[in-house]
Structure formats: structure tokens, C-alpha cells
């Protein structure tokens, strides 16, 4: 702690991302990265973008990319903002719409970064407990708050809230509803149309997961024009670099490539879930590119499973939190990576 920091910063623990080992010897199933490479068009676009013009600033509002997003997702250009990953978008939402004496409504469990960002801003947070099956509880719509942050599919459970319930929230919640759809391309449906139906809804997306661009950090939000106008005010002038803009544009140009990878991941997810259940794990029905596995009928606890797998150079995520302290979150890797994980779990049992 330093005497120079703001009180809300000194009193808040920083968010800790999943391990990123320096060596390539690990099977990495801990940070929900896509195991398959992006479209070859992305690599071509990156090479083409590396010219002497790189000395210039990027287009500040990423207009070409915004135009493509508007075309692909059937909305207007002025309904789109592009950001440096979804994490920046989360920061912008809080900066633009939450005063320091306001309250942000969260669910529990959810993406840990939400509360960290709220606390760092100096605002308050209230967490509404999800049901045992990770569904939305009754009465959440009546919770008082300036902003509701909702992940669908839920992180870390991978489950989805019923679309009709989300619509009820959008219609009944008094503040802004920000829907985190980072994993939605792996799900059966999405709530993107709510950004056009409700003036208080912002739908947030990322290129990190389904498009395999986690290393380039591109996110975007779709909402009514008034919401986008406020977000544009608080974003950094040149928040998304030229290479990232070019890569995301190329990824959208080859949308079929993304859908092909998603199909493979969904198929592997189904097999991984079935195999884990046969080993004695309880696995909620995931619609993300990961599963949450609780070793209810497996001979080892989650913490020990995590440690033993790491010794075997297999990384999964152990979230030492209430309701999650005997569960591991497993990214859906390639079939070969999943086979290695399952072989290790069988051997450890």
C-alpha cells in the first residue's frame, strides 16, 4: 500500500488473471482461449498492415471496423463502439454511467473482474445470489442500482439465463443493463436484438474467444445512440491499435471460419462433459467454451486435482471462492488436449 493511492484503490485487491506460463510445454486449459487459430485472412491482414504507415495513429473511432460490425450484426454505425478488449468496455461503462455514490448490481457467482472494477472506481456493489442451478433468482429486477452487469453465458458456470428472464430484467430494471456476451457464439441463442428493443441495454462482445484474437484485444458494444455517445466521450483517443483493427476486420470477413471452429468446440464440449460425468464430476450444462466441473463423485478434491494436473503440465482454473471452492473450470481445448486431460484424470483416480 502506498500513501499516494486513492483509498478505493488501496483497499481493493487487484484482479489476478489465469496463469500464462512462459514455456509452451503446458496444455493450457485455464483461460478460455480458442485452441484453433484465426482465419488465414487475419494473418494476411496483419502482414499487409505492417508498412511505414504504422508511424501514424490508428483511426480513432475504428470506423471501418464499426461499419463491418454494423453490417454483420445488423445495426447502425452509431450504435457501435469498438474497444481494447471487453475489459476496456467494462471500464468505460462504469466511468460513463456510474457515480462514486452509485450502486452496481452483480450476480454471484460471476466474472470476478466486475466487482474489482466497481471498487476501483469507488462505487458500491451489491451481489444477488444465483440459484443452485445458476439461474436468476426472483426479485432481482427490483434491486436498486445504476447499472446491472450480467454475463450470459455465465462465467464461470457456462450456463445461460433464460432469454425471457433477461428481457424482463431489461424492461423492469431502473438502470442500465450491460449484457456480457463474451461466450455467446458458443451458445444456442443471444440477446443482441435487445440493444435495439430497449433503450437501457448495452450488449458487449469480444473477438478474443470465438474469433481466436485474444492476443490482439478487440471488443465492441452495441446499444442505442445515446449510450454509445457517452461511451465515446470516455474512451481513450486511440484505444484500438491499427493492427488489431485490421485483424478484427479480416476475421469478420471470414465469419464462416469462426463458425467452423465454434462447431468443433461445441462438439468437443459435449464429449468432455459426458466423460467428466462418467468420472464422477457434476457439470452444469455449459454453452460456453469451458465447463465447470465439481468432483462430487471423484476421489480427489478440486484443489488437489488442480495441483496434480499442473504437475503433469496441464493447466485448469481453480477458483478458490465460495460455491466454487470445490470446482475446476476447464477450457474446451482440441480433442487431443481434452484426451490428455481425461487420461490424466483417469490415472489420478
Walkthrough of the structure:
With 349 residues, the chain is of the alpha/beta class. The chain has 2 domains: 7-37 and 256-348, Aspartate Aminotransferase, domain 1; 40-254, Type I PLP-dependent aspartate aminotransferase-like (Major domain) (Aspartate Aminotransferase, domain 2, 3-Layer(aba) Sandwich). Helix content is 38%, strand content 15%. It contains 12 helices and 12 strands. It has helices at residues 7-10, 40-49, 63-72, 85-97, 112-121, 163-172, 194-197, 225-234, 242-253, 255-278, 302-311, 335-348; strands at residues 27-28, 80-83, 103-108, 124-129, 147-151, 176-180, 201-206, 219-223, 290-293, 314-315, 317-318, 328-331. The strands form 3 sheets. The chain has a 7-stranded mixed β-sheet with strand order 2-8-7-6-5-3-4, sandwiched between helices. Strand 3 (103-108), helix 5 (112-121) and strand 4 (124-129) form a beta-alpha-beta unit. It is globular. The protein starts with 6 loop residues before the first helix and ends with a helix.
Amino acid at each position: 500500500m502506498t500513501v499516494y493511492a486513492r483509498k478505493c484503490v488501496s483497499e481493493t485487491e487487484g484482479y489476478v488473471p489465469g496463469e500464462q506460463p512462459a514455456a509452451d510445454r503446458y496444455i493450457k486449459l485455464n483461460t478460455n482461449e480458442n485452441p484453433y487459430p484465426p482465419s488465414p485472412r487475419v494473418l494476411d491482414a496483419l502482414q499487409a498492415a505492417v508498412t511505414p504507415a504504422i508511424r501514424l495513429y490508428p483511426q480513432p473511432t475504428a470506423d471501418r471496423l464499426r461499419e463491418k460490425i454494423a453490417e454483420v450484426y445488423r445495426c447502425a454505425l452509431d450504435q457501435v463502439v469498438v474497444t481494447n478488449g471487453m475489459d476496456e468496455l467494462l471500464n468505460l461503462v462504469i466511468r460513463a454511467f456510474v457515480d462514486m455514490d452509485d450502486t452496481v448490481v452483480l450476480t454471484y457467482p460471476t466474472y470476478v473482474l466486475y466487482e474489482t472494477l466497481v471498487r476501483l472506481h469507488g462505487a458500491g456493489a451489491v451481489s444477488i445470489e444465483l440459484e443452485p442451478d445458476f439461474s436468476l433468482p426472483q426479485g432481482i429486477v427490483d434491486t436498486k442500482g445504476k447499472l446491472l452487469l450480467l454475463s450470459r453465458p455465465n462465467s464461470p458456470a457456462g450456463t445461460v439465463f433464460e432469454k425471457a428472464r433477461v428481457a424482463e430484467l431489461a424492461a423492469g430494471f431502473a438502470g442500465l443493463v450491460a449484457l456480457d456476451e463474451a461466450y455467446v457464439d458458443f451458445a444456442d441463442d443471444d440477446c443482441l436484438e435487445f440493444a435495439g428493443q430497449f433503450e437501457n441495454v448495452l450488449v458487449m462482445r469480444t473477438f478474443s474467444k470465438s474469433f481466436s484474437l485474444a492476443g490482439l484485444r478487440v471488443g465492441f458494444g452495441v446499444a442505442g445512440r445515446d449510450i454509445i455517445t457517452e461511451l465515446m466521450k470516455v474512451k481513450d483517443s486511440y484505444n484500438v491499435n491499427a493492427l488489431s483493427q485490421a485483424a478484427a476486420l479480416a476475421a469478420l470477413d471470414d465469419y464462416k471460419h469462426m463458425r467452423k471452429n465454434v462447431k468443433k468446440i461445441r462438439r468437443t464440449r459435449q464429449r468432455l462433459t459426458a466423460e467428466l460425468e462418467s468420472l464422477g464430476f457434476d457439470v452444469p450444462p455449459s454453452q460456453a467454451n469451458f465447463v465447470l466441473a465439481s468432483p462430487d463423485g471423484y476421489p480427489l478434491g478440486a484443489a488437489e486435482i488442480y495441483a496434480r494436473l499442473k504437475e503433469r503440465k496441464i493447466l485448469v482454473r481453480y477458483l478458490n471462492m465460495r460455491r466454487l471452492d470445490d470446482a475446476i473450470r476447464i477450457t474446451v481445448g482440441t480433442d487431443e488436449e481434452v484426451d490428455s486431460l481425461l487420461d490424466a484424470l483417469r490415472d489420478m483416480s
